[in-house]
């Protein structure tokens, strides 16, 4: 991907965790690869507690370098990357400092990108301060999740930012949309004639989408305790994956065609009836347990977590889509921390054949199933039935595997790298549009409200398991179970 789009990339929260782990390493990778970033492009890091550029570069060397390039750092590329970095000492609470920022970027080249890697409470003050010195004109703004806490607070941020930046200037990040396998899902569905005719209620019995993590809340107990898994993972990543799995074929891959189709899915989600919540939603919280041989503590004892917290670290949901293609097909979503394995995957369970001439063993062997493993080890696995060798007609379930790293040995790109390049090059398709975000909040809010009103604690589960038993019971009612295979 060659580019001549020059840019000035202003990074608010320049010494934050996200800048350290994701944003600066992704920019470095794009720089190292060559040809992806215009030579003249600059990065202006904004921070308050750093004296000047040389102190900032020292911080970058100490904190960012360990996060780049798994196979060792290319020292020459690293040294030339540092020459792209400028620094602005700005106190975000002081609007006058933005005059300094304007002066710092005045003569820098290309399109201006303002990346807000800060808490959401700073989004609106920063946008207003940028506008006060005219820096919003012809610029792009990148907003990190969480964007608000519920529909009302997300609307308040979007309204205020929308007074300063037009929708085409706003890039709302959901990093799952930048993952290679999620892109591949579009390729699988819309580049192959094979799957699309079967991708509907007549042939699909149920769909599962899982994002399971082994990690706990790490150092983010305080943030997480006010957020919970429904806001942290379902409202954004899981509903985005669901909308890509279920959307109609877009007429092209331009940003609004894709986003229009995703929006139609989000708007077609069957609203959750508060009286049914016990049947279609399970929430859990991890207790202590063992993961890969190591004892791990309970959520309740993690630093930053309030005493007797009822925040959920696990959610499982049964979701229905009220449209012609999917009516009656259950979509089961689940996500959780401290589960038995780190895995993100989509499982499409097809219906059994309408009549089996092959006898009882065919029925016992099960039906076709397509498993799209997003991480780790991106794979697509298609389960089929085959005759077991030997006498008689005994069928067994076998699988066809497509392991991406065997076909494509090079060229993999981290989500943040792809998304940052898209911002610099003005491609909006992989960013969440305001109406999508609103539709997602509108759908999750009754669940949040009901959980709050009921005041019941989440169901406990031991760390290192697959969550509360109720999540399995929910699927058992539909005659199915979660697919839990070894990695
Ligand atoms: C983030 C959540 O958006 O996604 C985290 O805030 C979560 O809680 C992370 O751990 C998971 O992302 P990934 O790419 O590691 O699956």
UniProtKB/TrEMBL annotation:
GO terms for molecular function: glucose-6-phosphate dehydrogenase activity; NADP binding. GO terms for cellular component: cytosol. Pathway: Carbohydrate degradation; pentose phosphate pathway; D-ribulose 5-phosphate from D-glucose 6-phosphate (oxidative stage): step 1/3. It is an enzyme of class 1 (oxidoreductase). NADP(+) binds at residues 48, 91-92, 145. It comes from the Bacteria. Transmembrane segments: none annotated. It holds the Pfam family G6PD_C. Keywords: Carbohydrate metabolism, Glucose metabolism, NADP, Oxidoreductase. InterPro entries: G6P_DH, G6P_DH_AS, G6P_DH_C, G6P_DH_NAD-bd, NAD(P)-bd_dom_sf. One of its GO terms (biological process) is pentose-phosphate shunt, oxidative branch. The gene is zwf_2. Belongs to the glucose-6-phosphate dehydrogenase family. Catalyzes the oxidation of glucose 6-phosphate to 6-phosphogluconolactone. The keyword NADP applies. Substrate binds at residues 175, 179, 213, 232, 337. HAMAP family: G6PD. Its EC number is 1.1.1.49. The active site is at residue 237. It catalyses: D-glucose 6-phosphate + NADP(+) = 6-phospho-D-glucono-1,5-lactone + NADPH + H(+). This is Glucose-6-phosphate 1-dehydrogenase. Residues 10-184 form the Glucose-6-phosphate dehydrogenase NAD-binding domain.
């Amino acid at each position: 991907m060659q580019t001549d789009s020059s840019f000035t990339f202003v990074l608010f929260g320049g010494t934050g965790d996200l800048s350290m782990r994701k944003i600066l390493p992704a920019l470095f990778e794009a720089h190292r690869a060559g040809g992806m970033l215009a030579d003249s492009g600059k990065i202006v890091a904004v921070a308050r507690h750093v004296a000047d550029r040389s102190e900032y570069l020292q911080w970058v060397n100490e904190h960012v370098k360990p996060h780049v390039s798994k196979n060792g750092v290319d020292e020459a590329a690293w040294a030339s990357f540092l020459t792209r970095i400028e620094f602005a000492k700005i106190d975000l609470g002081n609007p006058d400092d933005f005059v300094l920022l304007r002066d710092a970027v005045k003569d820098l080249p290309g399109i201006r990108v303002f990346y807000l890697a800060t808490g959401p409470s700073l989004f609106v003050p920063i946008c207003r301060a940028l506008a006060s010195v005219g820096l919003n004109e012809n610029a792009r703004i990148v907003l990190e999740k969480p964007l608000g806490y519920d529909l009302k607070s997300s609307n308040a941020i979007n309204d205020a930012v929308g007074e300063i930046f037009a929708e085409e200037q706003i890039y709302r990040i959901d990093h799952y949309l930048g993952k290679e396998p999620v892109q591949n899902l579009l390729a699988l569905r819309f580049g192959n004639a094979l799957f699309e005719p079967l991708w509907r209620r007549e042939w699909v019995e149920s769909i599962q989408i899982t994002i399971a993590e082994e990690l706990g809340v790490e150092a983010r107990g305080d943030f997480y305790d006010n957020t919970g898994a429904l806001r942290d993972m379902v409202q954004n990543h899981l509903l985005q994956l669901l909308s890509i799995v279920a959307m109609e074929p877009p007429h092209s891959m331009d940003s609004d065609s894709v986003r229009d189709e995703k929006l139609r899915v989000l708007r077609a989600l069957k609203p959750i009836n508060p009286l049914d919540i016990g049947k279609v939603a399970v929430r859990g919280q991890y207790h202590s347990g063992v993961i890969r041989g190591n004892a791990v503590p309970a959520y309740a004892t993690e630093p930053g977590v309030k005493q007797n917290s009822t925040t959920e670290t696990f959610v499982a949901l049964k979701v229905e889509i009220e449209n012609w293609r999917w009516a009656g097909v259950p979509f089961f979503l689940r996500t959780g921390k401290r589960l038995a394995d780190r895995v993100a995957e989509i499982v499409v369970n097809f219906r059994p054949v309408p009549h089996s001439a092959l006898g009882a063993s065919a029925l016992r062997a099960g039906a076709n199933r397509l498993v799209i493993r997003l991480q780790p080890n991106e794979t697509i696995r298609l389960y089929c039935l085959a005759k077991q060798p030997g006498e008689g007609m005994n069928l067994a379930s076998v699988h066809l595997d497509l392991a991406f790293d065997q076909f494509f040995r090079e060229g993999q790109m981290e989500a943040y790298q792809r998304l940052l390049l898209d911002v610099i090059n003005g491609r909006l398709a992989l960013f969440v549009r305001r109406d999508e975000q609103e539709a997602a909040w509108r759908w999750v809010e009754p669940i949040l409200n009901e959980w709050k009103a009921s005041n019941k604690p989440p169901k406990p589960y031991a760390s290192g398991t697959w969550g509360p038993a109720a999540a399995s019971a929910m699927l058992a009612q539909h005659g199915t179970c979660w697919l839990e295979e070894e990695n």
